[in-house]
């Protein structure tokens, strides 16, 4: 996947009693793109194997169905990727909240490769934590792929 992302309006922060979180450094309007989920593109089967064999953190796997109906996974288990060797990407750091989520993932295609972008579902204030519903309680999670709204 080509790496053209640069999400300057976000920062990692350790929040007392909650641990590491991602917060905004400026306000965002409803419907704005806030960041992507960046990782190694692999098959669903590879993703399930990594997910099932993970010790400790079982997160960092984003399962979805691509525009051709292929079951895929973005694997972000490695903190640093080849194209960003000196930084952790924000998508892998975002936390889950089914109740308080303020982002929604959307499937796009860039240079014929799938890209998961997160759009705000409401206005977000400066300094607010960003989070989304991982979908792990949904039937589609790690099964038929997350039901994303393709663009």
UniProtKB/TrEMBL annotation:
GO aspect biological process, one term: regulation of DNA damage response, signal transduction by p53 class mediator
Matches recorded under SMART domains: SET
Domain SET: 8-135
Listed Pfam families: SET (PF00856)
Domain of life (superkingdom): Eukaryota
GO CC terms: nucleus; polytene chromosome
GO terms assigned for molecular function: histone H4K20 methyltransferase activity
PANTHER family in the cross-refs: N-LYSINE METHYLTRANSFERASE KMT5A
The name this protein goes by in its record: SET domain-containing protein
């Amino acid at each position: 996947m080509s790496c053209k992302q640069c999400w300057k309006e976000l920062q990692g922060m350790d929040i007392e009693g909650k641990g590491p979180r991602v917060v905004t450094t400026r306000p965002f309007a409803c419907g704005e793109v806030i960041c992507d989920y960046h990782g190694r593109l692999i098959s669903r089967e590879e993703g399930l194997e990594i997910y099932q064999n993970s010790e400790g953190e079982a997160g960092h796997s984003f399962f979805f169905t691509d525009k051709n109906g292929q079951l895929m996974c973005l694997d972000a288990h490695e903190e640093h990727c080849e194209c960003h060797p000196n930084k952790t990407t924000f998508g892998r750091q975002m936390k889950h909240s089914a109740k308080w989520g303020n982002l929604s993932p959307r499937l796009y295609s860039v240079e014929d490769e799938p890209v998961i972008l997160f759009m705000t579902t409401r206005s977000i204030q400066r300094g607010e934590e960003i989070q989304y519903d991982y979908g792990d309680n949904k039937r589609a999670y790690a099964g038929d792929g997350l039901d994303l709204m393709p663009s």
